[in-house]
Known about the structure:
Elements: E1 8-11, H1 20-30, E2 35-38, H2 50-64, E3 68-72, H3 85-95, E4 99-101, H4 114-135, E5 138-142, H5 152-159, E6 167-171, H6 173-179, H7 183-190, E7 194-199, E8 203-209, E9 212-218, H8 230-239, E10 245-248, H9 252-255, H10 263-281
Parallel strand pairs: 1-2, 1-10, 2-3, 3-4, 4-5, 5-6, 6-7, 7-10
Antiparallel strand pairs: 8-9
Helix pairs in contact: 2-3, 5-7, 8-10
Amino acid sequence: MSKQKRPLIVFTKIFPGQDVDQLIESAQECGFEGFDLCLRPAFPINASNVTSRLPEAQKRFLQAGVPIGMISGETNLLSPKEPVAEPILSAMDLADIRLLKLGYYRFDAHKQDYWQAVEAARRDLDGWQALAKRYNVKACVHTHMGMLACNCAALMHLLADFDPRWIGAYIDPCHMRIEGEPFTTGAAMTRKHLCAVGLKDVTLSRVPKNDHGSAAHNMGVLAGEGMVDWNEVFPVLQEFQFDGVLSAHCTVLNYGKVPPEQHVDYIRREIAFLKRKRDEFLK
């Protein structure tokens, strides 16, 4: 396993179809230190085979020094009563993987009552807390624009009073920038529950809208070339004694229309930048 205290792992959404051997090769080729494993239908390890495949895969990743640091479930993995919920947590426990990213609670302000939506999500999280405690796994919710947990302030409406041993906050400076929430303030609000940080960048621009203007965002940029202030992000994490997961998303591949033959170069560049910032500020 990597000796780095806070290994920089990569969200395997950018590697659809790659099997265990190919993922190990990608990690060694691109310089990252482990995996945020995308546990979704189009990927070799998914909810239908997690019981048999996940523990063995983790053994091989550990042998290669690039372990799975967390699991990202399907975007609709919201209820602990789903048939796949307990098998996923059981397999994670066997594989000694302790962090699960849940799906996204969608919210339509025109059709839903906000506080009723919060209470419904909290009922789910109460069930996740019981299940997580049973398997010694933490379930976390990711801040994401346009969702119920669109920023850290909204996220804490969901997480308040839950036990941070079992329910965690996964914050994202890119989405926080889009939502206009200062990273330091958001990190302070979630500090007790903070267990993971998603690493990606974004640019914002003015676009015309009728007879005035609006804002557009673009996540198809390399980390360091957007508007996230990484010289704020990493020092704040150090100040708050963050000891959780750092998950690089390399979204430039999803949104930037990078030709496949250039993917490795772009991933290397992003990982090198993020590792440099981590090593500069996280001691």
